[in-house]
Design a protein that fits this description.
The complex is a heterodimer of chains A (about 300) and B (about 250). Chain A is about 75% helix and about 5% strand. With about 300 residues, chain A is mainly α. Chain A has one domain. Chain A has a two-stranded antiparallel sheet with strand order 1-2. In chain A, β1 and β2 form a beta hairpin. Chain A starts with a helix and ends in a 10-residue tail after the last helix. Chain B is globular and about 50 Å long. Chain B has nine helices and ten strands. Chain B has a single domain, classed as P-loop containing nucleotide triphosphate hydrolases (Rossmann fold, 3-Layer(aba) Sandwich), CATH 3.40.50. In chain B, the strands form two sheets. Chain B has a six-stranded mixed sheet. In chain B, strands 2-1-4-5 form a four-stranded antiparallel sheet, with helices on one face. In chain B, α3 packs across α4, α3 packs parallel to α5 and α5 runs parallel beside α6. Classes of the chains: A mainly alpha (about 300), B alpha/beta (about 250).
């Protein structure tokens, strides 16, 4: 039971990280029809920059702020250098080109920071643990990550649902050509969205850095999960991204522990150790298939 | 009186297929200028080029004397061009009022004052309400656009185009898919818009076209084969040949 609680908390925390990554991805996909595989790279860049800036300034917090801002600026630079030439091309070109960006940047990080995994120490303020229930302690930092994700989600929801630019973004995600016909410079709107998306993914990278090892290619696993999130949630929908991120985080984390245990209990011999993880890693795709069977456009479709 | 919108010798081809072949037309202020022609005559392609979603190979488009041939669509919108879409394309999850307020906001040019509250602003909502009133949708202001009837969606779309206070409105089949009653209501509405702006009307419903148009340009295979008043077009031999067999 206590294990279940811990896994549920870990799942929710993974969900928050996924949301930070998926929110930008879903808007970019929704507004521009642009498939950006390199979005996961922003997460990696954020983590690396977080490590370097924290070392440089001697403060996790300064590292967090500087790395998020720099990651956002770096995203805008990539957009200007490469991505803007891809919007009018087909999905295949977009996928190939952005995959090329992943390979180059993974290699680039290796050149700058080396192949060995780096670590970012937790800030002292959040490094302890607290008693969850009798006999179970849970790290404060993981709770802080969840809280940060929730706060960003809340701020984003306020901007998207209550402000002028939010209204334009929602409108752009559901019908871009029409918004441009109203006289809105959709490219400029898009750059704002892209920069904020890149910044949030970078922010997620710094938040995750103390929990994972910072290494080249760390963005790709989360990128695939983020795509599953936006497909389940509905392309272009922030609310969909939030709900789906929590679902995917929970299903993935809980599934891995429950199914692995169940398989080990049900089967015996060497097979049992393999069956569990194999089935568990399929779970989120099964959830995606089930959602798509019922709602082909995702839970909260923004497109018409 | 000089033309408000002037299209001069426009050419466009897709590979070997010539879709616009030296098309010229003048749209006068306060007039409804219909563009008709058999399927594949290049009407929608022409609208796309006028609005800027498609670039012509050659030719000039002027709005009130200003060359807009190379402007991006949103710049043309700011210059006073508005368009409706062939598909009903209101933003379905927004209310009718929000849809129009969005258009008012885009016109106001303040769309990048980022974090202003979008709702409850008299500055946006009052003009939006006035436009809804004008197209007869005042009673539907609070309804979500997706739940409006087909005809009401077309009215809402006209309201969004009007909210930008355009000088010329490009309407691509505004009556498509409307039932007889809805058509009658929309025709009356379109006729009443003359004093708001000039209209370029692409429409298949010939009854409506002859009822509404002040001038008609007839396209066939990308070329202008006739131009004149509805009366003159009705009698034109070339037009009859182009529409041979069609109810005209």
């Amino acid at each position: 039971m206590t294990l279940l609680i811990v896994q549920a908390l870990n799942g929710a925390q993974l969900g928050m990280l996924l949301f930070l990554i998926a929110a930008g991805l879903t808007l970019v996909f929704g507004v521009m029809n642009f498939v950006n595989l390199a979005h996961g790279v922003q997460y990696m860049i954020g983590a690396y920059l977080g490590v370097s800036f924290a070392l440089l300034t001697g403060s996790f917090w300064a590292g967090l702020v500087l790395a998020s801002l720099t990651a956002g600026a770096f995203g805008l630079l990539l957009e200007w250098l490469i991505f803007r030439h891809l919007y009018k091309r087909g999905e295949l070109d977009q996928v190939l080109a952005t995959f090329g960006v992943i390979l180059s940047l993974n290699e680039g990080t290796r050149l700058i920071w080396g192949s060995n995994p780096l670590e970012l120490p937790m800030p002292d303020l959040l490094s302890g643990s607290f008693q969850l229930v009798e006999g179970l302690r849970y790290p404060v930092y993981r709770v802080a990550v969840m809280a940060a994700g929730l706060l960003v989600a809340l701020a984003l929801a306020l901007v998207v649902n209550r402000t002028r630019i939010g209204m334009l973004i929602r409108a752009g995600a559901s019908n871009g050509p029409m918004v441009s016909a109203l006289g809105v410079d959709i490219m400029r709107l898009f750059r704002v969205v892209f920069g904020v998306g890149a910044m949030m993914a970078g922010f997620a990278g710094v938040l995750a850095a103390p929990l994972v090892s910072v290494e080249p290619g760390m963005g790709e696993n989360l990128l695939i999960l983020a795509f599953v999130v936006i497909v389940i949630g509905g392309v272009g929908s922030i609310r969909g991204a939030f709900v789906a991120a929590v679902i995917v985080g929970l299903v993935d984390t809980l599934g891995r522990s429950l199914i692995t245990d169940a398989a080990q209990a049900a089967l015996s011999g060497p097979a049992s150790a393999r069956v569990g993880p194999a089935v568990a890693s399929m779970l989120i795709y099964l959830v995606m298939a089930a959602v798509l069977a019922v709602k082909p456009a995702g839970l909260f479709a923004a497109r018409t | 009186m000089s033309a408000l919108l002037r299209v001069e010798n426009l050419h466009k081809r897709f590979g070997a297929l010539v879709v616009t072949d030296g098309v010229s037309l003048d749209v006068m202020p306060g007039r409804i200028h219909a563009v008709i022609g058999p399927n594949g005559a290049g009407k929608t392609t022409l609208i796309h080029q006028i609005f800027g979603t498609l670039a012509p190979d050659a030719g000039v488009i002027r709005l009130d004397g200003r060359d807009i041939t190379r402007l991006a669509p949103h710049r043309r919108a700011q210059a006073g061009l508005a368009r409706s879409f062939q598909i009903t394309s209101v933003l379905p999850e927004f209310s009718a009022l929000e849809n129009v307020a969005l258009a008012v906001q885009a016109r106001a040019g303040s769309s990048f004052r980022f974090f202003r509250a979008a709702r409850g602003q008299a500055g946006l909502n009052a003009p939006a309400m006035a436009v809804l009133e004008r197209v007869g949708l005042r009673a539907r202001a609070g309804m979500v656009a997706g739940s409006l009837s087909h005809g009401e969606k077309r009215q809402l779309e006209l309201a969004m185009a009007l909210a930008a206070k355009p000088r010329v409105m490009l309407l691509d089949e505004p009556l498509a898919g409307a039932g007889p009653e809805e058509t009658a209501r929309l025709v009356t509405l379109l006729g009443s818009l003359r004093d708001a702006c000039a209209i370029v009307l692409v429409e298949h419903d010939m009854d409506a076209v002859f009822q509404l148009a002040d001038e008609i340009t007839v396209l066939a295979q990308g070329r202008v084969i006739a131009h004149g008043t509805p009366g003159a077009i009705r009698e034109d031999a070339a037009v009859r040949t182009a529409y041979l067999g069609e109810d005209f």
